Amino acid sequence: MNCKSLFFLFCSIFSFYSFAQEPVNLQCEHLVNPIGIDASSPRLSWKMSGNEYGTKQSAYQLIIGTDSLDVKRGNGNTLQTDKIYSDKMLVNYVGNQLNPFTKYFWKVQAWDNQDKVYESKVASFETGMIHLKNWKGSWISDHHGIEYKPAPYFRKIVDLKKNIKSARVYIAAAGLYELFINGEKVGNHRLDPTYTRFDRRNLYVTYDVTKQMQAGANAVGVILGNGWYNHQSTAVWFFDKAPWRNRPAFCLDLRIEYEDKSIEVVSSDNTWKTSPSPIILNSIFTAEHYDARLEQPDWNKPEFDDASWGEVNVRPAPSQHIVAQQLHPIRNVEKIQAKSLRKIDDKTYIYDLGRNISGVSCINVSGEEGTTIRIKHAERLKPDGLPDLSNIDIHYRPKDDSDPFQTDIFILSGKGKEKFMPKFNYKGFQYVEVSSDRPIDLNKESLHGYFMHSDVPQVGFIESSNELLNNIWKATNNAYLSNLFGYPTDCPQREKNGWTGDGHLAIETGLYNFDAITIYEKWLADHQDEQQPNGALPAIIPTSGWGYHWANGVDWTSTIAIIPWEIYRFYGDSKLLYNCYDNMKRYVDYITEQHSVGYLSSWGLGDWVPVKTTSDLELMVSLYYYKDASILAKAAKLFGYTDDFSRYNQLAENIKNAINNKFLNTQTGIYADGTQTELSMPLMWKIVPEDMIEKVASNLNQKVVDNNFHLDVGVHGAKALLNALSENGYAETAYKVATQNTYPSWGWWIVNGASTLYENWNIDADIDISLNHIMFGEIGAWIYKGLGGIFPDEDYPGFKVFNLKPNFIEELKSFSASFSSPHGEIKSSWEIKKGNVTYSVNIPGNTTANFSIPKGYKLDKAELSGRNQKLDLYSDDNGAYKLLPGNYKLIIKADIKP
Fold this sequence. Notes:
It contains 18 helices and 47 strands. By secondary structure, it is of the alpha+beta class. It has five domains: 112 residues, Immunoglobulins (Immunoglobulin-like, Sandwich), CATH 2.60.40; 193 residues, Jelly Rolls (Sandwich), CATH 2.60.120; 124 residues, Galactose-binding domain-like (Jelly Rolls, Sandwich); 328 residues, Alpha/alpha barrel (Glycosyltransferase), CATH 1.50.10.10; 94 residues, Maltose phosphorylase, domain 3 (Sandwich), CATH 2.60.420.10. Strands 20, 21, 25, 26, 27, 28, 31, 32, 33 and 34 form a ten-stranded mixed β-sheet that branches. Strands 35-40-41-42-47-44-45 form a seven-stranded antiparallel β-sheet. Strands 2, 4, 5, 7, 8 and 9 form a six-stranded mixed β-sheet that branches. It starts with a helix and ends with a strand. The N terminus is likely disordered.
């Protein structure tokens, strides 16, 4: 009996013992029970709750309807499919056209491989506008110009004379907003809507406000902030000169369904009223100023007298493309109490939150009327212990001193204890200096911070016996989240820009740790908005126009290919890849026609912020050119574009050959000058000829050993180095580099107090020294790959089939990586005792893993965890063990040969 036969025998034994469980985690458009979706054919997905003995889905049925009880009973008046024989757990809705403003209920029936059926609980999704024509409201603002500083209030009284069944608010804004009904803030989102190219696409958000509405008079209140729409602060990126710039505006429909089934829509129009608010300045880039003396108590309640308020200004819509904001929103995710307080004098206090965050501070204070308090936020302190902003304010170009960087200004009303937290700004900081022009009394509890970011669910977890490694992973996640605000940014303080390179460098770190697909789909739509007709993309996205002439080379703007491809690999969802196909094609053609000679390109920034050694620009850029062309070829094959596949597959091959012909010395196994970056990148992108891989990898290993196991790379080398080592037989070397604690290293940052990742290996550098950057963040993904060995298989994306290639590091006595894939939790963990490894692994239902034992070890015993049932595992023709769903405990011994 050959290996394959043994494998199929193993499969049949497991099939006999199949105990599948109900479908769980039902999602629509990768969100749980979303409301206000615009997708005409929304994606529906689920997981299997169990993984007992080879759980496999053999068929499914979708039941969708507008009555939840009917759906629960198994009847769908919208869609009821036949029994579909498929193991897919991500499908598109294909049925009658969905109606706007409608709540649909759905469930899944799934059959296992013994034809036993299991039912999910009932989930829901609710459509929004769907079409632009369904909007009733007008875009309104006040009558002030772009230089007017105070944020405007708006209000409208809605009189309800009948009993309501449901109420929804649909609101779009150019700028930022907060919405209130009867004095209560609606929802817990921050900084809605997320930033887009306002003259090309605007986002709207849907809220269920049924519970906020009351019989009789209701007050609807809106306050508008500038955001990126009316950028009044000045910096090197010229957002103050954005072509869309205008006074903030919004459009709102309040749609009320009464119990008698009648519908009433109350909209933004010229009957609303407006007034300036106490927010006397708000800048997404710098800070917010608030004068509590200007407060109008109960301005958003029905009983408020608005006789002195002015008329609104009806404006044209900023764009004709207004679509639903379908993503995990920004929130105040974590409240952080001050770790310490140092009182300088009666007017100056220094708070330390103990960690670097993106977000805001919230202060509670009392004092005399007119007392002006300045709340300065910084990442580091000067030698005298006062805040030092010199590492993050270098790109600010203030017109005067009225808008200080990262410094909120709060003017007290003198009416007892007062609270201030900015509404339309966020910052990057650890330290907060509170200074006032009159004495105030503060204690440690008077100020706290909020860690703000896109509230994406965490899906990956790491724990090991090396505390430094654990802290590096935590710092990487903190840096990633600090730079996720509806789009990936580079830093939360100095820029807040959507740098393309930072985005693709950290994509795998993001996807191993967080369910972030909704953010990336929104950001790639921003890419489509910004792409020039010739295919060019800017370096920062969104942009007011900056970035088309500098920094937007191939090694940066390859986001257009890399991110859709990684989303496809991790989620098994080809929608983003399909939507971006034409954009990728135009981009690759643009490189070919405008920025390549002989299949090589030098259009790029290169290995940004290296330690000391500069790597060859043309080699690095051409490797990204190859990556883009190869992704495009794979996408063309996936979608059946045969001519495109032939063309771009040949282009990728030509680029690879040109790189190897020019830069690879086949005698020495050295690329270019043999820097760590020049050797690791060809290995990671897999362009090294098969017969040269061992020699190139050996040279890379020796280069690192000669550097005393320290890295000497910039951002692109940091992406490649650990992967190139661990995937080519040198995992121990990679681990030593990853866990170094002396300069230069990730650990060097940690031992010097970092709780996030930095922008520069040199913590005393004069420039490029933000203390919360994500561009060196690939190490967060490498931990899952290089140690846990968890890899998606692009031939079976979404971890339907995945590869387990762990590396058992002798210095690392215990390690655990868990990852909640689209099919369920994958877990890879071990303990090492006396050179032998107890390896525990969880394979989720409806998947298969190819498990490869690292060189130097052999499988001694295998059993199902918790059942002590010994298994006979057999490797396939490639030497990998096929693991069906289940919890395994494998005893692996060092393979010591005489």
